[in-house]
Amino acid sequence: MPKTAVTPVLLVLNVAIFVLMLARGVHPVQPAIDDLIRWGANYGPRTTQGEWWRMFTCMFLHIGLLHLLFNMFALWHVGGVMERIFGRTGFLTLYLLAGLLGSIASVAWNPAVVSAGASGAIFGLFGGLLAFFVRHRDAHQHAFWAALRTNTLTFLAYNLVFGFIQQGIDMAAHLGGLVGGFACGLVLTPTFTLASRARRQLRSGLVGVAGLGIMISLAGLLPRAEDIDAALQRFATVDTASLELFNQTMTQRQHNRVTDTEVVRVLEQDLLPPWRAQRQHLQRLRTASRLPARQKQLVDTLLEYVAARQEGWELLATGLARRDQRALKQASEKQRQADAVFGTAGGRGKAAP
Prior knowledge:
Blueprint: H1 6-23, H2 33-39, E1 42-43, H3 44-47, H4 54-57, H5 65-109, E2 114-115, H6 119-135, H7 143-165, H8 171-188, H9 194-198, H10 200-221, H11 228-254, H12 260-288, H13 293-322, H14 325-344
Antiparallel strand pairs: 1-2
Helix pairs in contact: 1-5, 5-6, 5-8, 5-10, 6-7, 6-8, 11-12, 12-13, 13-14
């Protein structure tokens, strides 16, 4: 194929979407997470809750200008060669299937991370090149193919090592795209005969249909991911309501409007059951999700706060029921500890003494 058509279209599409995002107020260097999600980034809690289209749209979004420039340079470098090797239909099939597998791998590995960019699909192109060299092992005898193979191996080695060292890089998407591209490349690599060229588009179409079916099946196996931020917001609501009820009850006790028996009832029936449920929920989030460092630290701090508050209320109920001054003193210490921990997490609510 003397000319390429798909590669320039992909380049223009990626750049146009980035420009449109800038025109709508998205930051050009450090776009906000909410902006990326609103524009269609891959985010496990949204994707696995029915917004499966995010696995496709995220391939055309980029997290800042440098991210876009790097990916477009790589796409321009390898896209033209791949499109000439595999043909337009085969090239587009490989690109999209590799990108989709990268999106699936990203959600499977870390559903709490917002992912965007053409990197998975581009790694898929290099994976397809590896498959080409596996199918045509004699290609290294030609200087052009030998140089291209060396460049491909160098690119993959550098980016894989750099990706594992540098934080904030979605290596699951890169590796998923690489594997998807290699698998497609093994099937789509032409033999450069007239007969195979005549069947190339049909084979590419069949691979596309079969690959899409596989992607749908794999996506269906993904467990539903929970929105960590939404879960934390629900906890904040429970925390506010619980503290308001506790403070109101203790104020009434100070004015002799309720008895100690009534305070114990409020603690054991109204406050502690939902509080224990929130603690269990936070513990499940902590152990079941691969949380980013920021969210992990926040959940750990909240778990410390929840434990201290719960122990304080349990000691208070025991102290009031048994008239145990030691338990009451320990309850006050736990409440102060909870207030101190909550202050480090940026909270404002405090329990009444």
